[in-house]
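Lab notebook, bench 4. Still working through the backlog of constructs that have no structural model yet. Next entry is a single chain of 286 residues. Request: give me the structure tokens for it.
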Amino acid sequence: MFISIGENMIVGFIGFGEVSSVLSNILSKNGIRTVTVVKGRSNKTQELAVKSDVQILDSYETLIKGSDIVISANSPANALKVAEKYADLMEDNIYIDLNNISPDTTIKIADLFEKDHPVIEEESKHSIFSNTDEPDLRNPFVDGAIIGKVSSEPSLILFSGSKAEDLAILNNYGLNVIIVSKIPGDVSTLKTLRSLYTKGVSAVLMETFEVAKSLDLESQLFEILSMTEGEDFELKARSRINNSYKNYRRKAEEMDEILNFLINVFPNKNFIMTKASSQKFHLVKK
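Model written out:
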């Protein structure tokens, strides 16, 4: 395995929002060195990095060439652009995409990291393994997804890709990792299906309680729904609603990714509920 063990392992983050901050702090507390770049980023991002345990570097080129694992945690709209910019810098390290992107976008990113396999001449095939410097020709791209709230330690993280199994080592350093398969796109497909459901529920909740609030029946509605949905329904529902309003722009981007994927795969289906959920997030005004 190429990955350095223990305190020698370095994990670099491209993008340093809540996801990167939480993961960086978990890994740092468990002996892993984490690095990022904040030059040119927002004041909020810079302040978050300063408050975290992450080391701040001057350039992404240094980050990528010096990290065993590179994690992209930006936004669905920027995921492909970031990968296009830095794919050529990757060597024997691993590139993880943790953005909520569609399987179609995932495959486009995976293709950027594909390396050509050299043709081995007949006369050299018996001695090829004597060269200990032979590169690992597996695609270094790994499809990743965080299931649930990233702030809920330890978050469940799913991985798929030809190097995904190498990442099981992260279970030793505070993360909760499950390897789904060796095929990039499997995790993003599962993530898309999950988002299709959870964001649809969020959209319905938002609209239901907007109407209830305008009729001054919000508390009563929570009360009667809790009778059938469970005692903790109000707490969970309010948390979901607040999160939806707070992150509506990102959720709108994610719904665009989901719709594009579904329409490409099933061009003859009419995804009524998904389109409605997408429109709900796009129309939020805060």
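Notes after review: The beta strands are 10-14, 33-37, 55-57, 69-72, 94-97, 141-147, 156-160, 176-181. The chain has two domains: 6-182, 190-282. Flag for follow-up if needed.
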